[in-house]
């Protein structure tokens, strides 16, 4: 663990801009900067992944680290920053972790097997109840940041996996591969070494997109009905 | 294709089994409490019910092994899951504030569970082992009025009573998370019923363990 | 003088694409298995192209610098995607979408390409729905539409404010399916650093593994660049931190012409800069201009009072406010197109009326909308003689239902409550219409090197309409490239695997290695960001929303100076053979500096105002943009000659058969 002092931090800065200030200073001192993942800086790409003061994405709710602002901290505070910690997310460097386990879970079945030929039927051919469309959308807003895994005491990926399973289970397009999808995805999730869900609910609280525990219950149902 | 793993090698089935065995034990607890409660009301009623439970062949040779298996399974599976979950995070956080996003009960099921398990050891030593010895080694099946006296005898000792009380506090904490969590694990969750289940869960988690506490203290004071 | 062949098919515009598909070469399925294609970038264009090409049977290698293809910057698009579905029965058609796009682009796009885009747009929606993209729906279960700036119909499909995310996840899932099948080999955390040309054809790339720092040689029969736009040449933009021009620029240096680099879209409604530490700017959806009124104070004294905190904006009476868009453009008011709204904000701020400390902000005020909606709502609820406070509360409820998430985002960033005090906004760089020059087949001037999505220049002319970027990215990737690439690859069925250890590959690898080593061994005194910020400042001040000859000449000189200092004094810590984010930035900024110079040169050469390019020399007496079709109705395609300042200009004349050229007016 390293402790760095940073000064001249404005309350309007985002957390990552504070990190920029730190790194700029380290570079001018001829030192190596602290590596961290970040990209869009508007809370949608899911790159940023810091465990700040004991919580993923820090103390604010419904935000990613890039949307966390320094006004949430007090002058003189010591801020603890760690990478996500899970055996399925090996650390690459400093605060950067490898989340490709998530990609492999999606690859195992998180899609509808239609070709991109453009010869599919008209988009309005199957009406979808607004309620289902909205629920599917809510599940689909997952940004794959991994905060759920980081927050869970068991490093379980259930919230992430269930969001994708739910999205497709709620839509008519997802029905054909419904059973196989959930079986394959859960299988891959287990293979990657994520822990088991014990319903603590930490994932839902820390999720920057507010993905609901309803999705985990739905995946449990989907899985059980696919298995019997 | 999904590989055809053994039934308990999938995370979701493991927790499903955990939930079912837990719910089974929840039902058993209620039954146990009901019978014990009669000891507060009438020694005779308690004796006759206990004798029925202790000698009825269906209870003895069908239900009792199932119960034993349920307890044993829930316990072993709980430990297995805990070990797996721990290995999913080999490097712990240096600084963590789990209380910001989850309840103490939900995070410490293994602690409350182990405490309950230790209590079970004491409980078996107190009641179950003497029962087995009496029935299966000594072959005595027909004393119908011994149960109430045995009960009173055990709750004579203030240390034992204190241990019982403490254990039921742990059981209460265990149930507070476990009861409602079991419904989530089996996929039972919707806007209409889930709030009710959560309330019921909390009520159960308080009423049932403290019912047992009440019985223990009642008999202690009654002597 | 032009050597450019745009390969526009013959025939009437509505038959061109069909005829073309009927006549181009096709690779048979068995042979597709023998052909490798590299795709650089995994956003809407790259992701869609990778998935489609893999489905066809090609062996695809896809590269992205992010840790997952799902994080490409297409994900940040908010508003929606256009398609000529005419579900609203409001008279939309392929022609109308085509017309709107050409007009919105200020008549600087290639007709045939735009028509094709409009033609395939409807298919995109079908495709995405089939993939399980959860578009917004009406209560009857059918798809909902909203309207966007610059058009008269409702043709924008959306998924709340996260349309880009949902479409990208659709493309990502299609890719994931092919990755699972082994048809796509995905290279995450890899960055293309050079294009390799063998016998005059693009045959591979040099990529750096960003985790280990290793250089890798990857060969293929064709290379598709779908690496996005170059808005980060301004340092501050709404682009992601990693968005860069390197892939396109390296191809440019290897012979691909760069078209219209000066066409940049500056989006009017972004959250203003709050200080020098600012790393990027955040966009607020264009939809806010439906209800928000834009103003600055009429009097300078009020400006001073507001800046120093003595007055609040709400203290100013209606008479003390200047609703300058409504004043200047009574017909369109606050709903003028993006380029016009941005320039008007700059005009006021340059005149000293900016309302924040930096002097670069104007108000976007929902006060009157809140009162208007409040009164309506009070009527609906039959409230007799409601008090102002009551009306306000009801109105705030209506506004919250419409824009709640945007207001919340604004409050998170600025800590101001936009229900109580007007939002502050300022224009920011958002999208680049320019890019690699491509023909009708999306092939650059390097045979075998294709460009798709924002990385090419083809469809938006000098200004892009809202909700058209997503449409273009997916159209290129799903429906255009999979056909047109076959025309080139049909000649390669007997070529066999391309070796990656030929002299050309080794040479390119050596050069790249030397470039990286010289950066890390430079051991100067200033960080990469230092130079990037300086470049951005020059670009914004002199090549930004308004440009003139003198400023552009100064800009070119200053950028050359920055470039010189960069190579003398940049400090890149660490080494080249490890995870090194500073080195990544350094290679990108080095290319941005070169591009910046070409950008300014292009802006200098185009002495007319069109779309996002405003030359002060070319304006009407009222200060509006003035196009010059006689002298500038062409696409500028620049050829690399060893130095940006000596780039060679090639002109592709733009001819309009199906649309009449008109001067845009929003008065």
Total strand segments of chain C = 19
Estimate what percentage of residues of chain A fall within beta strands.
Answer: 5-15%
- How far apart the termini of chain C lie comes to 39 Å
Q: Report the C-alpha radius of gyration of chain A, rounded.
A: 20 Å
Strand order of the largest sheet of chain A: 2-1-3
Descriptive notes:
Chain A has 228 residues and is mainly α. In chain A, 37% of the residues lie in helices and 6% in strands. In chain A, helix 5 (158-170) packs antiparallel against helix 6 (178-191), helix 5 crosses helix 8 and helix 6 packs across helix 8. Chain B has 223 residues and is mainly alpha-helical. Chain B has one domain: Up-down Bundle (3 helical TM bundles of succinate and fumarate reductases). Chain B contains 8 helices and no strands. Chain B has helices at residues 11-41, 43-55, 57-87, 104-107, 109-137, 147-154, 158-185, 194-222. With 667 residues, chain C is an alpha+beta fold. Chain C folds into 3 domains: 16-26 and 36-265 and 430-492, FAD/NAD(P)-binding domain, CATH 3.50.50; 270-427, Flavocytochrome C3, Chain A, domain 1; 509-653, Methane Monooxygenase Hydroxylase, Chain G, domain 1, CATH 1.20.58. In chain C, strand 7 (201-209) and strand 8 (215-219) form a beta hairpin. Chain C is globular, with a radius of gyration of 25 Å. Chains A and C meet through helix 1, helix 2 and helix 3 of A and helix 3, helix 5, helix 6, helix 12 and helix 13 of C.
